[in-house]
Specification:
- There is one protein chain.
- This protein is mainly α and 552 residues long.
- 78% of the residues lie in helices and 0% in strands.
- Helix 1 (4-18) runs antiparallel to helix 2, helix 22 (354-367) packs antiparallel against helix 23 and helix 29 (479-491) packs parallel to helix 31.
- The chain starts with a helix and ends in a 5-residue tail after the last helix.
Length: 552
Protein backbone atom coordinates (compact mmCIF):
# COMPACT_ATOMS: atom_id res chain seq x y z
CA UNK A 1 0.00 0.00 0.00
CA UNK A 2 1.45 3.39 -0.92
CA UNK A 3 1.84 5.93 1.83
CA UNK A 4 -0.81 8.59 1.69
CA UNK A 5 1.82 11.28 1.80
CA UNK A 6 2.66 10.41 -1.80
CA UNK A 7 -0.93 10.85 -2.82
CA UNK A 8 -1.46 14.22 -1.17
CA UNK A 9 0.54 16.14 -3.74
CA UNK A 10 -1.61 14.69 -6.51
CA UNK A 11 -4.98 15.10 -4.85
CA UNK A 12 -4.65 18.52 -3.27
CA UNK A 13 -4.53 20.65 -6.45
CA UNK A 14 -7.94 19.30 -7.49
CA UNK A 15 -9.52 20.44 -4.25
CA UNK A 16 -7.51 23.65 -4.29
CA UNK A 17 -9.02 24.61 -7.65
CA UNK A 18 -12.53 23.78 -6.51
CA UNK A 19 -12.36 26.02 -3.46
CA UNK A 20 -9.96 28.72 -4.60
CA UNK A 21 -12.59 31.37 -3.88
CA UNK A 22 -12.05 30.99 -0.08
CA UNK A 23 -8.72 32.43 1.03
CA UNK A 24 -8.71 30.30 4.18
CA UNK A 25 -8.95 27.11 2.15
CA UNK A 26 -6.19 28.35 -0.12
CA UNK A 27 -3.95 28.85 2.93
CA UNK A 28 -4.74 25.37 4.24
CA UNK A 29 -4.05 23.82 0.85
CA UNK A 30 -0.71 25.64 0.70
CA UNK A 31 0.22 24.37 4.17
CA UNK A 32 -0.55 20.82 3.06
CA UNK A 33 1.50 21.28 -0.10
CA UNK A 34 4.40 22.60 2.03
CA UNK A 35 4.07 19.66 4.46
CA UNK A 36 3.07 22.06 7.26
CA UNK A 37 0.50 19.60 8.54
CA UNK A 38 0.10 20.91 12.07
CA UNK A 39 -0.61 24.38 10.72
CA UNK A 40 -3.11 22.94 8.23
CA UNK A 41 -4.74 20.87 11.00
CA UNK A 42 -5.10 23.92 13.27
CA UNK A 43 -6.55 26.12 10.54
CA UNK A 44 -8.93 23.42 9.27
CA UNK A 45 -10.11 22.68 12.83
CA UNK A 46 -10.94 26.34 13.35
CA UNK A 47 -12.75 26.60 9.99
CA UNK A 48 -14.76 23.41 10.66
CA UNK A 49 -15.86 24.76 14.04
CA UNK A 50 -16.85 28.11 12.57
CA UNK A 51 -18.51 26.63 9.46
CA UNK A 52 -19.62 23.05 10.26
CA UNK A 53 -21.32 22.78 6.85
CA UNK A 54 -18.07 23.51 4.98
CA UNK A 55 -17.26 20.13 3.44
CA UNK A 56 -13.79 21.22 2.25
CA UNK A 57 -12.81 22.18 5.81
CA UNK A 58 -13.66 18.67 7.02
CA UNK A 59 -11.78 17.14 4.08
CA UNK A 60 -8.62 19.08 4.82
CA UNK A 61 -8.98 18.35 8.52
CA UNK A 62 -9.08 14.63 7.72
CA UNK A 63 -6.11 14.85 5.36
CA UNK A 64 -4.03 16.85 7.83
CA UNK A 65 -4.92 14.44 10.65
CA UNK A 66 -3.90 11.52 8.43
CA UNK A 67 -0.54 13.15 7.61
CA UNK A 68 0.16 13.83 11.29
CA UNK A 69 -0.63 10.19 12.10
CA UNK A 70 2.04 9.07 9.66
CA UNK A 71 4.57 11.39 11.29
CA UNK A 72 3.70 10.02 14.72
CA UNK A 73 2.25 13.31 15.94
CA UNK A 74 -0.63 12.78 18.37
CA UNK A 75 -3.55 15.19 18.08
CA UNK A 76 -7.24 14.99 18.85
CA UNK A 77 -9.83 13.52 16.52
CA UNK A 78 -10.06 10.74 13.96
CA UNK A 79 -9.20 11.22 10.28
CA UNK A 80 -11.90 8.77 9.17
CA UNK A 81 -14.60 10.67 11.05
CA UNK A 82 -13.50 13.94 9.48
CA UNK A 83 -13.46 12.51 5.95
CA UNK A 84 -16.80 10.79 6.54
CA UNK A 85 -18.23 14.17 7.52
CA UNK A 86 -16.93 15.67 4.26
CA UNK A 87 -18.57 12.82 2.31
CA UNK A 88 -21.82 13.30 4.22
CA UNK A 89 -21.87 17.00 3.26
CA UNK A 90 -20.95 16.37 -0.39
CA UNK A 91 -21.31 12.79 -1.57
CA UNK A 92 -20.75 13.84 -5.20
CA UNK A 93 -17.08 14.65 -4.57
CA UNK A 94 -15.01 11.73 -5.84
CA UNK A 95 -11.86 12.71 -3.95
CA UNK A 96 -13.58 12.79 -0.58
CA UNK A 97 -14.90 9.29 -1.00
CA UNK A 98 -11.68 7.95 -2.52
CA UNK A 99 -9.55 9.22 0.39
CA UNK A 100 -11.95 7.80 2.94
CA UNK A 101 -11.97 4.36 1.32
CA UNK A 102 -8.17 4.43 0.99
CA UNK A 103 -7.85 5.32 4.67
CA UNK A 104 -10.03 2.39 5.68
CA UNK A 105 -7.87 0.14 3.51
CA UNK A 106 -4.63 1.41 5.09
CA UNK A 107 -6.04 0.61 8.53
CA UNK A 108 -6.90 -2.92 7.54
CA UNK A 109 -10.64 -2.21 7.66
CA UNK A 110 -11.20 -3.97 4.34
CA UNK A 111 -14.96 -4.43 4.70
CA UNK A 112 -15.42 -0.67 5.09
CA UNK A 113 -13.00 -0.05 2.21
CA UNK A 114 -14.86 -2.48 -0.08
CA UNK A 115 -18.20 -0.90 0.81
CA UNK A 116 -16.74 2.51 0.01
CA UNK A 117 -15.25 1.49 -3.32
CA UNK A 118 -18.33 -0.46 -4.38
CA UNK A 119 -20.55 2.55 -3.71
CA UNK A 120 -18.10 4.72 -5.64
CA UNK A 121 -18.21 2.32 -8.56
CA UNK A 122 -21.95 2.94 -8.85
CA UNK A 123 -21.64 6.69 -8.35
CA UNK A 124 -18.63 7.13 -10.67
CA UNK A 125 -18.84 4.26 -13.17
CA UNK A 126 -16.12 5.64 -15.44
CA UNK A 127 -13.42 5.97 -12.78
CA UNK A 128 -11.23 2.95 -13.50
CA UNK A 129 -9.04 3.50 -10.43
CA UNK A 130 -11.95 2.40 -8.25
CA UNK A 131 -12.26 -0.87 -10.15
CA UNK A 132 -8.54 -1.59 -9.86
CA UNK A 133 -8.62 -0.92 -6.11
CA UNK A 134 -11.41 -3.45 -5.80
CA UNK A 135 -9.50 -5.96 -7.93
CA UNK A 136 -6.52 -5.69 -5.56
CA UNK A 137 -8.69 -6.13 -2.48
CA UNK A 138 -10.59 -9.06 -3.96
CA UNK A 139 -7.31 -10.75 -4.87
CA UNK A 140 -5.91 -10.25 -1.38
CA UNK A 141 -9.07 -11.76 0.07
CA UNK A 142 -8.98 -14.68 -2.36
CA UNK A 143 -12.20 -13.58 -4.12
CA UNK A 144 -10.83 -14.37 -7.57
CA UNK A 145 -14.14 -14.41 -9.44
CA UNK A 146 -15.00 -10.95 -8.18
CA UNK A 147 -11.60 -9.72 -9.35
CA UNK A 148 -12.17 -11.08 -12.85
CA UNK A 149 -15.66 -9.57 -12.88
CA UNK A 150 -14.13 -6.15 -12.18
CA UNK A 151 -11.78 -6.55 -15.14
CA UNK A 152 -14.80 -7.42 -17.32
CA UNK A 153 -16.54 -4.25 -16.16
CA UNK A 154 -13.55 -2.07 -17.02
CA UNK A 155 -13.24 -3.58 -20.48
CA UNK A 156 -16.96 -3.07 -21.17
CA UNK A 157 -16.69 0.71 -21.15
CA UNK A 158 -12.94 1.32 -21.68
CA UNK A 159 -11.91 -1.62 -23.86
CA UNK A 160 -8.91 -3.84 -23.41
CA UNK A 161 -5.67 -2.22 -22.31
CA UNK A 162 -2.25 -3.23 -21.03
CA UNK A 163 -3.37 -2.94 -17.37
CA UNK A 164 -6.53 -5.01 -17.80
CA UNK A 165 -4.76 -7.71 -19.79
CA UNK A 166 -1.83 -7.96 -17.39
CA UNK A 167 -4.12 -8.05 -14.39
CA UNK A 168 -6.25 -10.78 -15.93
CA UNK A 169 -3.07 -12.70 -16.79
CA UNK A 170 -1.82 -12.55 -13.22
CA UNK A 171 -5.19 -13.55 -11.80
CA UNK A 172 -5.35 -16.59 -14.07
CA UNK A 173 -1.78 -17.56 -13.19
CA UNK A 174 -2.68 -17.37 -9.51
CA UNK A 175 -5.38 -19.96 -10.24
CA UNK A 176 -2.83 -22.23 -11.96
CA UNK A 177 -4.50 -21.65 -15.35
CA UNK A 178 -1.27 -21.18 -17.29
CA UNK A 179 -2.59 -21.97 -20.77
CA UNK A 180 -5.58 -19.67 -20.36
CA UNK A 181 -3.34 -16.94 -18.97
CA UNK A 182 -0.93 -17.27 -21.88
CA UNK A 183 -3.80 -17.06 -24.38
CA UNK A 184 -4.89 -13.75 -22.83
CA UNK A 185 -1.47 -12.26 -23.65
CA UNK A 186 -1.25 -13.84 -27.09
CA UNK A 187 -4.74 -12.69 -28.16
CA UNK A 188 -4.05 -9.16 -27.05
CA UNK A 189 -0.62 -9.15 -28.72
CA UNK A 190 -2.17 -10.18 -32.05
CA UNK A 191 -4.53 -7.21 -31.89
CA UNK A 192 -2.31 -4.55 -30.31
CA UNK A 193 1.44 -3.85 -30.28
CA UNK A 194 2.63 -3.41 -26.72
CA UNK A 195 6.24 -3.65 -25.48
CA UNK A 196 4.88 -4.37 -22.01
CA UNK A 197 2.75 -7.33 -23.02
CA UNK A 198 5.38 -8.66 -25.41
CA UNK A 199 7.91 -8.58 -22.57
CA UNK A 200 5.47 -10.48 -20.38
CA UNK A 201 5.16 -13.08 -23.11
CA UNK A 202 8.95 -13.29 -23.12
CA UNK A 203 8.99 -13.73 -19.35
CA UNK A 204 6.31 -16.41 -19.57
CA UNK A 205 8.23 -18.45 -22.14
CA UNK A 206 11.54 -17.99 -20.32
CA UNK A 207 9.84 -19.43 -17.25
CA UNK A 208 8.86 -22.41 -19.42
CA UNK A 209 12.51 -22.71 -20.59
CA UNK A 210 11.60 -21.76 -24.17
CA UNK A 211 14.66 -19.56 -24.57
CA UNK A 212 14.41 -18.99 -28.33
CA UNK A 213 10.74 -18.03 -28.18
CA UNK A 214 11.35 -15.76 -25.18
CA UNK A 215 14.18 -14.03 -27.06
CA UNK A 216 11.92 -13.50 -30.07
CA UNK A 217 9.30 -11.76 -27.94
CA UNK A 218 11.89 -9.56 -26.25
CA UNK A 219 13.30 -8.57 -29.63
CA UNK A 220 9.81 -7.75 -30.89
CA UNK A 221 9.22 -5.57 -27.82
CA UNK A 222 12.54 -3.81 -28.44
CA UNK A 223 11.63 -3.22 -32.06
CA UNK A 224 8.80 -1.04 -30.72
CA UNK A 225 10.90 0.60 -27.99
CA UNK A 226 14.64 -0.03 -28.21
CA UNK A 227 15.24 1.15 -24.63
CA UNK A 228 12.40 -0.73 -22.95
CA UNK A 229 14.15 -1.89 -19.77
CA UNK A 230 12.01 -4.99 -18.92
CA UNK A 231 12.65 -6.39 -22.39
CA UNK A 232 16.38 -5.66 -22.16
CA UNK A 233 16.59 -7.30 -18.75
CA UNK A 234 14.61 -10.28 -19.96
CA UNK A 235 16.87 -10.59 -22.99
CA UNK A 236 19.98 -10.38 -20.83
CA UNK A 237 18.56 -13.12 -18.60
CA UNK A 238 18.17 -15.40 -21.63
CA UNK A 239 21.85 -14.83 -22.41
CA UNK A 240 22.84 -15.46 -18.81
CA UNK A 241 20.84 -18.67 -18.53
CA UNK A 242 22.28 -19.95 -21.80
CA UNK A 243 25.79 -18.95 -20.64
CA UNK A 244 26.35 -16.40 -23.42
CA UNK A 245 28.03 -14.07 -20.95
CA UNK A 246 29.58 -11.50 -23.32
CA UNK A 247 26.12 -10.80 -24.75
CA UNK A 248 24.64 -10.89 -21.27
CA UNK A 249 26.89 -8.10 -20.00
CA UNK A 250 26.55 -6.13 -23.22
CA UNK A 251 22.75 -6.16 -23.00
CA UNK A 252 22.80 -5.48 -19.29
CA UNK A 253 25.00 -2.48 -19.95
CA UNK A 254 22.28 -1.08 -22.20
CA UNK A 255 19.86 -1.27 -19.30
CA UNK A 256 22.22 0.44 -16.90
CA UNK A 257 22.99 3.29 -19.33
CA UNK A 258 19.28 3.94 -19.94
CA UNK A 259 18.41 7.10 -18.03
CA UNK A 260 14.68 6.40 -18.30
CA UNK A 261 14.88 3.04 -16.54
CA UNK A 262 14.07 3.22 -12.82
CA UNK A 263 17.28 3.18 -10.75
CA UNK A 264 15.59 1.16 -7.99
CA UNK A 265 14.80 -1.60 -10.51
CA UNK A 266 18.40 -1.60 -11.73
CA UNK A 267 19.75 -1.84 -8.19
CA UNK A 268 17.29 -4.60 -7.26
CA UNK A 269 18.25 -6.64 -10.32
CA UNK A 270 21.99 -6.28 -9.75
CA UNK A 271 21.69 -7.04 -6.05
CA UNK A 272 19.63 -10.13 -6.78
CA UNK A 273 22.11 -11.21 -9.46
CA UNK A 274 25.08 -10.97 -7.13
CA UNK A 275 23.23 -12.58 -4.23
CA UNK A 276 22.05 -15.64 -6.15
CA UNK A 277 25.04 -16.26 -8.42
CA UNK A 278 27.73 -18.84 -7.88
CA UNK A 279 30.80 -17.32 -6.17
CA UNK A 280 32.98 -18.61 -9.00
CA UNK A 281 30.89 -16.70 -11.53
CA UNK A 282 31.20 -13.53 -9.45
CA UNK A 283 34.96 -13.95 -9.14
CA UNK A 284 35.47 -14.72 -12.83
CA UNK A 285 33.33 -11.86 -14.09
CA UNK A 286 34.09 -9.32 -11.36
CA UNK A 287 35.50 -6.72 -13.82
CA UNK A 288 32.34 -6.93 -15.95
CA UNK A 289 30.09 -6.62 -12.90
CA UNK A 290 32.17 -3.66 -11.74
CA UNK A 291 31.66 -2.07 -15.14
CA UNK A 292 27.88 -2.55 -15.00
CA UNK A 293 27.68 -1.01 -11.52
CA UNK A 294 29.91 1.87 -12.60
CA UNK A 295 27.68 2.56 -15.61
CA UNK A 296 24.57 2.67 -13.43
CA UNK A 297 26.33 4.89 -10.88
CA UNK A 298 27.45 7.36 -13.55
CA UNK A 299 23.87 7.66 -14.85
CA UNK A 300 22.40 8.04 -11.32
CA UNK A 301 25.13 9.75 -9.25
CA UNK A 302 22.82 10.75 -6.39
CA UNK A 303 20.50 7.75 -6.27
CA UNK A 304 20.64 5.94 -2.95
CA UNK A 305 19.70 2.49 -4.27
CA UNK A 306 22.37 2.52 -6.98
CA UNK A 307 25.17 4.04 -4.92
CA UNK A 308 24.43 1.83 -1.93
CA UNK A 309 24.21 -1.26 -4.11
CA UNK A 310 27.53 -0.49 -5.76
CA UNK A 311 29.22 0.14 -2.42
CA UNK A 312 27.84 -3.08 -0.95
CA UNK A 313 29.10 -5.01 -4.00
CA UNK A 314 32.65 -3.74 -3.47
CA UNK A 315 32.40 -4.35 0.27
CA UNK A 316 31.14 -7.93 -0.18
CA UNK A 317 34.01 -8.70 -2.53
CA UNK A 318 36.59 -7.66 0.05
CA UNK A 319 37.42 -4.24 -1.37
CA UNK A 320 36.65 -2.30 1.78
CA UNK A 321 38.79 0.74 0.92
CA UNK A 322 37.06 1.07 -2.47
CA UNK A 323 33.66 0.63 -0.78
CA UNK A 324 34.55 3.43 1.65
CA UNK A 325 35.46 5.68 -1.30
CA UNK A 326 32.14 4.89 -3.00
CA UNK A 327 30.09 5.60 0.11
CA UNK A 328 32.15 8.73 0.73
CA UNK A 329 31.52 10.07 -2.78
CA UNK A 330 27.80 9.38 -2.38
CA UNK A 331 27.71 11.05 1.04
CA UNK A 332 29.29 14.15 -0.48
CA UNK A 333 26.91 14.09 -3.45
CA UNK A 334 23.90 13.79 -1.12
CA UNK A 335 25.01 15.50 2.12
CA UNK A 336 21.43 15.80 3.35
CA UNK A 337 20.96 12.01 3.54
CA UNK A 338 21.86 10.62 6.95
CA UNK A 339 21.84 6.92 5.87
CA UNK A 340 24.56 7.74 3.32
CA UNK A 341 26.73 9.21 6.07
CA UNK A 342 26.15 6.26 8.38
CA UNK A 343 27.21 3.78 5.70
CA UNK A 344 30.34 5.78 5.01
CA UNK A 345 31.28 6.01 8.67
CA UNK A 346 30.71 2.30 9.23
CA UNK A 347 32.87 1.25 6.30
CA UNK A 348 35.56 3.81 7.16
CA UNK A 349 35.81 2.16 10.55
CA UNK A 350 36.21 -1.26 8.99
CA UNK A 351 38.76 0.02 6.48
CA UNK A 352 41.03 1.20 9.28
CA UNK A 353 41.15 4.80 8.06
CA UNK A 354 40.58 6.25 11.52
CA UNK A 355 41.79 9.76 10.73
CA UNK A 356 39.20 10.11 7.97
CA UNK A 357 36.61 8.46 10.19
CA UNK A 358 37.06 11.10 12.89
CA UNK A 359 37.01 13.98 10.42
CA UNK A 360 33.94 12.61 8.57
CA UNK A 361 32.12 12.05 11.87
CA UNK A 362 32.75 15.63 12.96
CA UNK A 363 31.27 16.81 9.65
CA UNK A 364 28.25 14.55 10.15
CA UNK A 365 27.72 15.87 13.69
CA UNK A 366 27.87 19.41 12.33
CA UNK A 367 25.30 18.64 9.62
CA UNK A 368 23.06 16.51 11.87
CA UNK A 369 23.41 18.09 15.33
CA UNK A 370 20.47 16.14 16.76
CA UNK A 371 22.19 12.81 16.03
CA UNK A 372 24.33 12.79 19.17
CA UNK A 373 24.98 9.06 18.87
CA UNK A 374 27.27 9.80 15.92
CA UNK A 375 29.88 10.91 18.45
CA UNK A 376 30.45 7.25 19.32
CA UNK A 377 32.27 6.87 15.98
CA UNK A 378 34.82 9.44 17.18
CA UNK A 379 35.46 7.22 20.20
CA UNK A 380 35.96 4.27 17.83
CA UNK A 381 38.52 6.23 15.81
CA UNK A 382 40.44 7.42 18.86
CA UNK A 383 40.36 4.02 20.55
CA UNK A 384 41.87 2.34 17.51
CA UNK A 385 44.63 4.97 17.51
CA UNK A 386 45.15 4.14 21.23
CA UNK A 387 44.22 7.71 22.13
CA UNK A 388 42.49 6.69 25.34
CA UNK A 389 42.58 10.20 26.83
CA UNK A 390 40.88 11.41 23.63
CA UNK A 391 38.17 8.78 24.03
CA UNK A 392 37.51 9.99 27.57
CA UNK A 393 37.26 13.59 26.38
CA UNK A 394 34.81 12.56 23.67
CA UNK A 395 32.70 10.63 26.18
CA UNK A 396 32.52 13.75 28.36
CA UNK A 397 31.31 15.63 25.29
CA UNK A 398 28.59 13.01 24.74
CA UNK A 399 27.47 13.21 28.38
CA UNK A 400 27.12 17.00 28.14
CA UNK A 401 25.14 16.78 24.90
CA UNK A 402 22.72 13.94 25.76
CA UNK A 403 19.94 13.59 28.37
CA UNK A 404 21.56 12.36 31.59
CA UNK A 405 19.60 9.07 31.76
CA UNK A 406 19.86 8.26 28.05
CA UNK A 407 21.38 5.22 26.38
CA UNK A 408 24.06 7.55 24.98
CA UNK A 409 25.15 8.55 28.48
CA UNK A 410 25.07 4.91 29.57
CA UNK A 411 27.40 3.99 26.72
CA UNK A 412 29.66 6.98 27.41
CA UNK A 413 30.09 6.24 31.13
CA UNK A 414 30.74 2.58 30.30
CA UNK A 415 33.42 3.46 27.75
CA UNK A 416 34.99 5.99 30.12
CA UNK A 417 35.30 3.27 32.74
CA UNK A 418 37.09 1.00 30.28
CA UNK A 419 39.44 3.80 29.20
CA UNK A 420 40.27 4.88 32.74
CA UNK A 421 41.22 1.28 33.52
CA UNK A 422 43.43 1.19 30.40
CA UNK A 423 45.42 4.21 31.59
CA UNK A 424 45.69 2.90 35.15
CA UNK A 425 43.12 5.17 36.80
CA UNK A 426 41.23 2.48 38.70
CA UNK A 427 39.53 4.96 41.02
CA UNK A 428 37.99 6.88 38.15
CA UNK A 429 37.20 3.61 36.36
CA UNK A 430 35.02 2.42 39.23
CA UNK A 431 33.33 5.81 39.57
CA UNK A 432 32.47 5.81 35.86
CA UNK A 433 31.04 2.29 36.12
CA UNK A 434 28.98 3.35 39.11
CA UNK A 435 27.56 6.25 37.08
CA UNK A 436 26.63 3.83 34.29
CA UNK A 437 24.92 1.42 36.68
CA UNK A 438 22.97 4.29 38.19
CA UNK A 439 21.37 4.72 34.75
CA UNK A 440 20.86 0.97 34.24
CA UNK A 441 21.63 -1.34 37.19
CA UNK A 442 21.34 -4.41 34.95
CA UNK A 443 23.68 -3.27 32.13
CA UNK A 444 25.62 -6.48 31.54
CA UNK A 445 28.78 -5.10 29.82
CA UNK A 446 29.51 -2.82 32.79
CA UNK A 447 28.55 -5.43 35.38
CA UNK A 448 30.94 -7.90 33.77
CA UNK A 449 33.88 -5.51 33.51
CA UNK A 450 33.32 -4.11 36.99
CA UNK A 451 33.23 -7.64 38.41
CA UNK A 452 36.30 -8.69 36.40
CA UNK A 453 38.44 -5.79 37.56
CA UNK A 454 37.44 -6.43 41.18
CA UNK A 455 38.42 -10.06 40.66
CA UNK A 456 41.80 -9.08 39.20
CA UNK A 457 42.50 -7.03 42.31
CA UNK A 458 41.12 -9.78 44.55
CA UNK A 459 38.83 -7.39 46.40
CA UNK A 460 35.10 -7.30 47.16
CA UNK A 461 34.63 -10.75 45.65
CA UNK A 462 31.12 -11.14 47.05
CA UNK A 463 30.03 -7.98 45.20
CA UNK A 464 31.86 -9.16 42.09
CA UNK A 465 30.10 -12.54 42.26
CA UNK A 466 26.66 -10.89 42.49
CA UNK A 467 27.39 -8.62 39.53
CA UNK A 468 28.74 -11.47 37.43
CA UNK A 469 25.79 -13.71 38.28
CA UNK A 470 23.46 -11.01 36.95
CA UNK A 471 25.31 -11.15 33.63
CA UNK A 472 24.95 -14.87 33.08
CA UNK A 473 21.31 -14.73 34.11
CA UNK A 474 20.78 -12.32 31.22
CA UNK A 475 23.07 -14.13 28.75
CA UNK A 476 23.60 -17.70 29.93
CA UNK A 477 25.56 -18.72 26.82
CA UNK A 478 27.99 -15.77 26.71
CA UNK A 479 31.45 -17.35 27.06
CA UNK A 480 33.07 -14.11 28.25
CA UNK A 481 30.53 -13.65 31.04
CA UNK A 482 30.77 -17.33 31.98
CA UNK A 483 34.56 -17.04 32.23
CA UNK A 484 34.29 -14.05 34.57
CA UNK A 485 31.76 -15.80 36.79
CA UNK A 486 33.66 -19.08 36.85
CA UNK A 487 36.92 -17.35 37.73
CA UNK A 488 35.33 -15.39 40.58
CA UNK A 489 33.93 -18.66 41.97
CA UNK A 490 37.45 -20.11 41.75
CA UNK A 491 38.89 -17.13 43.64
CA UNK A 492 36.22 -17.70 46.31
CA UNK A 493 37.39 -21.31 46.62
CA UNK A 494 34.23 -22.67 44.97
CA UNK A 495 35.90 -24.81 42.29
CA UNK A 496 33.18 -27.46 42.32
CA UNK A 497 30.67 -24.75 41.34
CA UNK A 498 33.10 -23.18 38.87
CA UNK A 499 33.71 -26.39 36.90
CA UNK A 500 30.23 -26.68 35.27
CA UNK A 501 30.33 -22.95 34.47
CA UNK A 502 33.58 -23.39 32.49
CA UNK A 503 32.32 -26.62 30.96
CA UNK A 504 29.31 -24.70 29.65
CA UNK A 505 31.59 -21.93 28.37
CA UNK A 506 33.54 -24.50 26.34
CA UNK A 507 30.35 -25.29 24.39
CA UNK A 508 29.72 -21.62 23.47
CA UNK A 509 33.04 -20.22 22.30
CA UNK A 510 35.25 -20.61 25.36
CA UNK A 511 37.72 -22.76 23.39
CA UNK A 512 38.50 -19.70 21.25
CA UNK A 513 39.99 -17.86 24.23
CA UNK A 514 43.39 -18.74 25.68
CA UNK A 515 42.44 -17.03 28.94
CA UNK A 516 39.23 -19.05 29.36
CA UNK A 517 41.07 -22.30 28.57
CA UNK A 518 43.77 -21.42 31.09
CA UNK A 519 41.20 -20.60 33.75
CA UNK A 520 39.45 -23.92 33.19
CA UNK A 521 42.77 -25.75 33.46
CA UNK A 522 43.46 -24.03 36.81
CA UNK A 523 40.04 -25.09 38.18
CA UNK A 524 40.60 -28.69 37.05
CA UNK A 525 44.03 -28.71 38.71
CA UNK A 526 42.49 -27.52 41.95
CA UNK A 527 39.99 -30.37 41.73
CA UNK A 528 42.78 -32.90 41.18
CA UNK A 529 41.84 -33.68 37.57
CA UNK A 530 45.42 -33.25 36.38
CA UNK A 531 45.25 -35.19 33.13
CA UNK A 532 42.26 -33.21 31.86
CA UNK A 533 43.84 -30.02 33.18
CA UNK A 534 46.97 -30.73 31.14
CA UNK A 535 44.89 -31.04 27.95
CA UNK A 536 43.27 -27.66 28.49
CA UNK A 537 46.59 -26.11 29.58
CA UNK A 538 48.19 -27.19 26.30
CA UNK A 539 45.20 -25.89 24.34
CA UNK A 540 45.51 -22.56 26.15
CA UNK A 541 49.21 -22.25 25.25
CA UNK A 542 48.53 -23.11 21.61
CA UNK A 543 45.71 -20.59 21.42
CA UNK A 544 47.86 -17.94 23.13
CA UNK A 545 50.65 -18.44 20.58
CA UNK A 546 48.10 -18.14 17.80
CA UNK A 547 46.33 -15.02 19.12
CA UNK A 548 49.18 -13.30 21.00
CA UNK A 549 47.30 -13.59 24.31
CA UNK A 550 49.18 -13.88 27.56
CA UNK A 551 48.40 -16.84 29.84
CA UNK A 552 50.15 -18.52 32.73
Amino acid sequence: MKKFILVLAVMLPCVFCAFAQDRRLVDIAQDMSDAQYMSAYTKASKLAREEPSNDAAWYYLGMARMALDMKGVVVKGDAAEYLAKAVELDSTNYWYRDRLAALYLSRGETDAAVAGYESMMKAFPKKTNTYYQLVNIYMQRGEIDKGLAMIDEIEKFAGKSDPTVMTRYRILLSRQKQEEALKVLEDYSEEYSSPQVLSMLGDHHMGMFSDSLALAYYDEALSLDKDYAPALIGKSEVFRMTRRFPRFFSTLGQVMSNQEAAPEAKADYMSELTNRSDPRFLQLYMPQIDSVWNEAASVHPADSAIQTGKGVWYYRTGRVKEAADIFGAYAKAAPEKLPARLLWLQVLGESGDYDTLEKATEEAVRDFPDQIQLLEMISVARYNRKDYEGVIANCERMIKAAPKDSAICLSAWSTMGDMYHSIGRKDKCMKAYAKALKINPDYAPVLNNYAWYLALDGVRLNLAEKMSRKCIQQEPDNATYLDTYGWILHLQGKDEQAKPIFKHAMLYGGKDSAVTLSHYARVLEKLGETDLAKIYRNQARAKAAESNEEVE
